[in-house]
Design brief:
The protein has 326 residues and is mainly beta. It has two helices and 13 strands; from the N terminus they run H-E-H-E-E-E-E-E-E-E-E-E-E-E-E. It has one domain: OMPT-like (Lipocalin), CATH 2.40.128.90. The longest helix is centred in the N-terminal third of the chain and has 9 residues.
Length: 326
């Protein structure tokens, strides 16, 4: 059986949110203190309900009005569907408030757009804008390995400072299908693929903060940033299925330094059992990778200009974490 003082320390030990629950004994006097030495572990999981977004150069499409047969004056925002993802977290706590934490976040979603205008190049004429539909898919895998230090700022304010390394793999794939018409009669069906990805690795720093409210309930916040070095790729082209041909396909590859920011705000409830402490949390989060992906304006394969765009995620999360004696 664990002693009551040990259980109090367990309630304070969190991976991403440094503390929750009642204040335990401290070993160092002063305005900022650290917990007594302890060896603990925690395992947790979060359900993420997110939507992904792109920068304007990739997110906007020209809009087609089927009732008039003309281009709409408004641009259409490519919206991916809301979908579920997850984050898995594991930590080992040692010494006076130190921890080593590993977490993996995974998310993927898709979307469909109708009545947009897609480019089609006709030899001797130029680029025509034809009615089309589009399907898109995107995916993010993010892995962090960090070391943290828990500190108590006051009886209610707790903080965890951490730093380490982060890996990110971002993928975006889109397929635009030109609607059948007399211009395409001899070559239909025709589609345009638009694929881009980024893989990078680099340092990350962050702060977890919690403010004890009452009876094991606390307000929590997290802010972190990373600076990744990796490879960004872009590939686009026309697919003429009838002739099994891929034409006008630009390909680009470059090394890129990509910064990212992540923020979370939520509530955590800690309940002490005889052998462990259970933490239940919920809140809202946002993640943004700056200039991670590549695109061409309105996805015109014959346009030589390729630009970088942001990739972001936002939405609520719900999680549970179990803290036990090592």
């Amino acid at each position: 059986m664990l002693k009551k003082t040990t259980i109090a320390v367990l309630g304070l030990a969190l991976s991403n949110l440094a503390t929750a629950g009642a204040m335990g004994p401290v070993c160092t006097p002063g305005s900022v203190t650290v917990p007594c030495e302890a060896r603990l572990w925690d395992l947790g999981a979060e359900a993420l309900y997110l939507r992904s977004i792109y920068g304007a150069a990739k997110g906007y499409q020209r809009k087609y009005n089927p009732s008039t047969g003309l281009e709409d004056s408004r641009l259409k925002d490519v919206k991916n569907d809301w979908n579920w993802g997850f984050r898995i977290i594991g930590s080992y706590h040692f010494n006076t408030g130190n921890d080593v934490t590993v977490n993996w976040m995974h998310f993927s979603s898709s979307g469909s757009q109708g009545n947009i205008l897609a480019p089609f190049v006709v030899a001797g004429v130029g680029t025509l804008s034809l009615p089309a539909g589009m399907d898109s898919n995107n995916r993010l895998d993010q892995v962090n390995i960090v070391m943290g230090q828990h500190v108590d700022m006051s009886a209610r304010d707790k903080m965890r400072l951490y730093g380490g390394m982060q890996y990110a793999n971002i993928q975006s794939m889109a397929q635009t299908y030109l609607y059948a018409n007399r211009i395409l009669a001899s070559v239909a069906p025709v589609s345009i693929f638009n694929n881009t990805d980024y893989k990078g690795f680099g340092p990350t720093l962050g702060i977890d903060y919690s403010y004890d409210l009452f009876n094991g309930l606390s307000l929590t916040a997290n802010g972190s940033g990373s600076l990744l070095y990796g490879t960004s790729r872009y590939h686009e082209g026309y697919v003429v299925t009838r002739f099994s041909a891929i034409v006008a396909q630009p390909y680009a590859r470059k090394k890129a330094i990509v910064p990212s920011l992540e923020a979370k705000l939520g509530l955590n409830y800690a309940y002490n059992f005889a052998q462990a402490t259970v933490n239940i949390d919920a809140g809202y989060q946002a993640v943004n990778y700056f200039n991670a992906l590549s695109t061409q304006v309105f996805q015109v394969p014959t346009n030589p200009q390729i630009s970088s765009v942001n990739y972001g995620l936002f939405g609520p999360y719900f999680g549970m974490k179990i803290v036990g004696n090592a």
